[in-house]
Amino acid sequence: MSKLRWWLILALRLFIGAIFVYAAYTKLRMPWMLFAMSVDSYQILPEWGVEIVARVLPWTELILGALLILGLVVRWAAVGSTALLTVFFSAIVRAYSLGLTINCGCFSTNEALNKVTILRDGSFLAASLILTILAFLARRRARQTA
Amino acid sequence: MKRIAIYLITGLLAGIALAAASATPQQIHITSEALTTAKSLGSSSAPVRIDEFSDFQCPACGNFYRNTLRLVIDNYVSTGKVYVVHHDFPLNMHAHSREAARWANAAAAVGLFEPVEQALFDKQDDWGVTGKIEPVIAEALSPAEMKKVQMVFQQDGAQLDAVVQADVALGQTKNIEQTPTIFVTSHGNTQPLPPGGVSYTLMKQYLDYLLAR
Question: B85 near B40, Cβ under 8 Å?
Fold first, then answer.
């Protein structure tokens, strides 16, 4: 693998991993009901679904973030982060297009959902997608040269 | 002598009757602090305090009031666990919300905020379209009560508007941009809830969590 690609993968891993760990931290430090209120405001899930997501998602983010930072099972952690960010991005775009004036819920309860948050989360998704592609390409090349 | 005694007794009885008639409800002095207290429900020493910034014409506020706040009032305010403070935050997009807030504050000045708040939110779909707020309030109050509210509304309009504007200014210091916006204070910490209202299920769980700490 070229040095440039190696550094790029490392940078993306640490960047996306840190985002996920920070996102998990902001949610886990407050009672789960507060994050559940943010999830509920998207008007997508039933009550029982809101509670499951509110209780499980922060831990999922923490695990994915840790795996990316530590460089463990990178390909599958990248797939997981891309899948999660795709879901987040879709929900945000849907809420915005419906005119819901809600908080993003991405990092705290106080962040309004607007064009800036859409742009930001879109860039996270793009970064995660690039990482996923590079990670799989790197694995394929490693197998070919082996 | 007898006649003088009769006149004196009649005059005394009339004075007592007059005092009794004006005794309840008393009109309070119209200041921001006094009306904020008059628009509050429950005990101020309750362990949890909810500050609600609300617009009477806002559908989300009506939904929050009917489906969440009423249940909080029934189950937590009445038992002394939660103190609810209403603040007006009429949005410019709602043509009649400032007038509705003025009526609500006029009612608060004579101790009738709760029934008027309920009437305004319950019939929001009606007066929100027609702008006819007074009949909605009249339906919720007795004729004598309505007369008192009308007097305050007509005579103290400027002061009532100033009280509403003070609430708006307070909300602006907290960067409020939409309604309802709720702040929950417990153990010295104030937590803003996601704007737009929350379900009673989640509010209940959060209040139980705070009360158990």
Answer: yes
Query: Does B192 contact A33 at a Cβ distance shorter than 8 Å?
Result: no
CA distances, A24 to each of A78, A107, A108 (Å): 17, 8, 10
Range of the domain at A14: 3-145
What is the least distance, in Å, from the CA of B204 to any CA of chain A? 10
Name the domain count of chain A.
1
At B210, phi and psi to the nearest 5? -65, -40
**Contact yes or no for B194 and A109 at CB 8 A:** yes
ipTM: 0.85
Give Cα B159 to chain centroid, integer Å. 16
Which of A33, A38, A101 is nearest residue B206 as measured by Cβ atoms?
A: A33
- B170, B87 in Cβ contact below 8 A? yes
Among B124, B103, B116, B114, which Cα is nearest to B179's?
B124
Domains of chain B plus CATH, in order, are 29-212 (3.40.30.10)
Contact between B110 and B152 under an 8 Å Cβ cutoff? The reply is yes
Query: What distances in angstroms separate CA B46 from CA A46, B65, B185, one per listed residue?
Result: 32, 20, 10
- Helix ranges (H only) for chain A are 3-28, 32-40, 47-70, 74-97, 115-145
Beta bridge partners of B185: B49, B190
Distance (Å, whole) CA B120 – CA B126: 9
| Distance (Å) from the alpha carbon of B130 to chain A's nearest alpha carbon | 25
Q: Give bridge partners of residue B184 from the DSSP assignment.
A: B50, B191
Q: What is the pLDDT of residues B52-93, one digit of tens each?
A: 999 999 999 999 999 999 999 999 999 999 999 999 999 999
pLDDT in tens, B142-173: 999 999 999 999 999 999 999 999 999 999 99
Instruction: Supply the pLDDT for residue B37.
Output: 92
Determine the distance in angstroms separating the CA of B188 from the nearest CA of chain A, rounded to an integer. Answer: 15
Q: Between chains, do A31 and B177 touch, taking CB under 8 Å as contact? A: no
